[in-house]
Amino acid sequence: MKLKHVLKSFLSGVYINIKSGPLRGKRWSIASGYKFIRGNYEQYKTDAFLEHFTEGSIFFDIGAHIGYYSSIAAVINKGNGPVFAFEPRPMNIKFFRSHIKVNNFQNVTLIEAAAGQDDGFVQFDDNHGSATGFVSGKGNLEVNQVSVGKMIKEGSLPVPDFIKIDVEGGEIVVLNDLAGVISSERPKMLVATHSKECRDFTEDFLKKNNYSFRVLNPEAVSGDTEIIAIPE
Predict the structure, then answer these.
(1) Contact indicator for 120, 146 with CB cutoff of 8 Å
(2) Which of the 8 DSSP states describes residue 31?
(3) Tens digit of each residue's pLDDT (9 = 90 or more) over 165-215
(4) How many DSSP H helices and E strands does the chain contain?
(5) Which helix or strand (DSSP H or E) is residue 12 part of?
(6) Domain 42-231 carries which CATH code?
């Protein structure tokens, strides 16, 4: 095991207060990164989320990482709106659950799975850092995968008001899986794209579904953008 992984695991149970931002005063693992602790993680993306997320909204956090946006939603909702998070990576799951528990966040449900168009097990590449894992046929880890669209259709999940998607290149698959829900229910969305192909697909998808959208970081290279999308 790499030394940094040993240190991260050792420090994962040490929590300090976040200094500023929407989670100010909340407890966070010191091993998760200084930007979380300082309160300026993904500032422009956080600002867009805060602008458009409203209390009581049903929030889906697809690619939830260690629970940053799920935690913000829980704070805003004050227990009045459910949060459903999807995350397949074991280390991220550990951090996510600890952050929810130590802060006593209510109405947060973590589904330990990747999101895709089919249910089952898939290979997951876990070799590129906690924020950059992705489903891959050459992955080193087997994880569970669920169709979020199917779960909504079957009634095991409610219809979301706001969806955040950050799945490291899997956004085309996730958007296709949720196409029916997005077309009929018109949730707000915050989508991270990770290639030019994914960005082009996402923008075309949003146009076809009559969404107004804004690229939050248009100067980004290789299509690695963050897009806020609001139904017209």
Answers:
(1) no
(2) G
(3) 999 888 999 999 999 999 999 999 999 998 999 999 999 999 999 999 999
(4) 9, 13
(5) none
(6) 3.40.50.150
For residues 70 and 73, give the distance between their C-alpha atoms in angstroms, rounded to a whole number. 5
Two tokens at 216?
Answer: 């939050």
Determine the residue type at 220: A
Share of the chain above pLDDT 70, in %: 88
Give the full edge-to-edge strand order of the sheet including 108-111.
108-111, 83-86, 59-62, 162-165, 188-192, 226-231, 211-215
Q: How far apart are CA 142 and CA 120, in angstroms?
A: 10
With CA atoms as reference, report the closest residue to 26 among 94, 77, 100, 91: 100
Q: Which residue has the tokens 């949730």?
A: 187
pTM confidence score: 0.90
Strand partners, 189: 163, 229
Please provide residue 142's backbone torsions phi and psi, each rounded to the nearest 5 degrees.
-95, 125
